[in-house]
Design brief:
Blueprint lengths: L8 H32 L5 H12 L9 H19 L6 H6 L1 H25 L3 H14 L1 H11 L3 H28 L4 H11 L3 H11 L1 H15 L2 H18 L7 H4 L2 H15 L4 H24 L3 H6 L2 H26 L2
Helix pairs in contact: 1-2, 1-3, 1-15, 2-15, 3-7, 3-14, 3-15, 5-6, 5-17, 6-7, 6-8, 6-17, 7-8, 7-12, 8-10, 8-17, 9-10, 9-11, 9-17, 10-11, 12-14
C-alpha cells in the first residue's frame, strides 16, 4: 500500500528560496566589479558594466540550476531596487524648482513620448523597446527603464537594448552639452534647466552641469531629481495601458491587481519617508546606494539572459529611435525656455 508524503508548506518555501541562491549569488558576483568600475567611470556607470559583463558570461554554457535565481534577480530584485531609490528623494525639490520648471518638464516629457511613439512606428521598433527607450529618454535613463520593464512585461533583450541605447547618448551628452552651452552663450540658469531636462542619466547630468559651472550643476541636479519623480505617474499610466491591451485581447487571466506596479507605491512611500520623517540623511543615502547596487545586480542578470549576437543585429533601429527622441527632447527644452517661458 503506497503512502503519499506531504511536504510541509514551510519546507517547500525554503526549497524555493534555496533554488534562487546560486543565480542571485552569480548576479551579485558579477555586480561587484561592475559597481566598482562604475564608480571609477561614472559616465559609463555600474548598470551598463553589469549588462556588459553579463552578456560576456552568457557565452558560458552554465548549469541549469543558476537560471531560477537569474530570472528572480532580473525581475523581482529590479522592482525592490526602485523602492530603495525613493529614500534618496526629497519632495521639497519639487517645490524648490518652481512653476516654470514644472511647465518646462511637462513640455519636454510630452515631446519625448510623442516622438518615441511616432518614430517607433516609422522605424518598426518592437513596442516594448519603443516604450523603454521613450521612458528612459523622457525621465531618467536606467532607473526609469528598470521601473517600466516589469510593468509592460518586457523581456531581458528589450531591457538590454534600451539601456545600451540610453547609455550611448548619456556619454555624448556629458561631453557635448557644456560645449554647446558655451557656444550658445547660455546663462547658468538656462543651462541648468537644459541639462536637467534633456540629459538622461543622473551621472551625465552631474558631469555636464558642473562642467559648465557650479551654479548650473546645482540647478541641473535639482531639476533632474524632480524629473525622476515622474517615474510614479508614468509607470501607473503604463499599467493602465497594459491592462487595456490585455482586456482588448480578451485574455481570460486578466487581473489589474497583478499588473498594478505596487513597487512604485513603495518608491513614493520611501520618498515621503525621507522628506517628512526624521530619517538620518546617512541612512537614506545608504538605502539608496543599496538600491543602486541591486539595479546593477539585476542588469547583470539581464546580461546573462541576453543574446549579444541578436542584440547587435537588431541594434540600429533602437539607436535611431533614441537619437530622434533625444534630439527632440533637447530642442524642445531650448524652444520652451526661450520662446514660451522667456527665461
Amino acid at each position: 500500500m503506497s503512502r503519499c508524503i506531504v511536504i510541509p508548506k514551510g519546507v517547500d518555501q525554503v526549497k524555493k528560496v534555496l533554488e534562487k541562491v546560486p543565480g542571485v549569488a552569480l548576479s551579485a558576483g558579477i555586480a561587484i566589479p561592475a559597481w566598482l568600475l562604475g564608480k571609477c567611470f561614472p559616465i559609463v556607470g555600474g548598470p551598463v558594466m553589469g549588462i556588459l559583463f553579463g552578456m560576456i558570461l552568457a557565452f558560458w554554457k552554465r548549469p541549469a540550476f543558476f537560471q531560477n535565481g537569474i530570472s528572480y534577480a532580473s525581475r523581482n530584485l529590479l522592482q525592490y531596487s526602485i523602492i530603495l531609490l525613493g529614500f534618496d528623494m526629497n519632495l521639497f525639490h519639487v517645490f524648490k524648482v518652481g512653476g516654470q520648471t514644472i511647465v518646462l518638464m511637462a513640455f519636454t516629457l510630452t515631446a519625448a513620448f510623442l516622438s518615441a511613439f511616432f518614430l517607433g512606428k516609422a522605424l518598426k521598433v518592437d513596442q516594448n523597446t519603443n516604450i523603454l527607450v521613450g521612458v528612459g529618454t523622457a525621465i531618467c535613463g536606467g532607473s526609469a527603464i528598470a521601473a517600466a520593464a516589469p510593468v509592460i512585461h518586457a523581456d531581458d533583450q528589450d531591457v538590454a537594448q534600451s539601456i545600451s541605447t540610453i547609455f550611448l547618448f548619456n556619454v555624448i551628452a556629458a561631453f557635448l552639452f557644456p560645449f554647446l552651452g558655451h557656444m550658445l552663450h547660455m546663462s547658468d540658469y538656462n543651462f541648468g534647466l537644459w541639462a536637467g531636462t534633456a540629459v538622461n542619466d543622473t551621472s551625465s547630468v552631474v558631469a555636464a552641469g558642473y562642467a559648465f559651472s557650479n551654479a548650473a550643476g546645482n540647478l541641473a541636479v535639482i531639476v533632474k531629481l524632480t524629473r525622476t519623480l515622474m517615474i510614479v505617474p508614468v509607470t501607473l499610466a503604463l499599467a493602465f495601458f497594459v491592462s487595456g491591451r490585455q482586456r482588448k485581447q480578451g485574455e481570460s487571466h486578466y487581473h489589474f491587481a497583478k499588473i498594478f506596479p505596487w513597487f512604485v507605491l513603495g518608491f513614493a512611500a520611501a520618498s515621503v519617508t525621507s522628506t517628512f520623517l526624521p530619517l538620518p540623511e546617512e541612512t537614506g543615502t545608504f538605502l539608496a546606494q543599496v538600491g543602486k547596487f541591486v539595479i546593477v545586480m539585476a542588469m547583470s542578470a539581464i546580461g546573462l539572459n541576453t543574446n549579444i549576437v541578436k542584440l547587435v543585429k537588431n541594434g540600429y533601429r533602437p539607436i535611431l529611435l533614441g537619437l530622434g527622441c533625444w534630439l527632440v527632447l533637447a530642442a524642445t527644452s531650448l524652444v520652451v525656455q526661450y520662446a514660451v517661458l522667456r527665461v
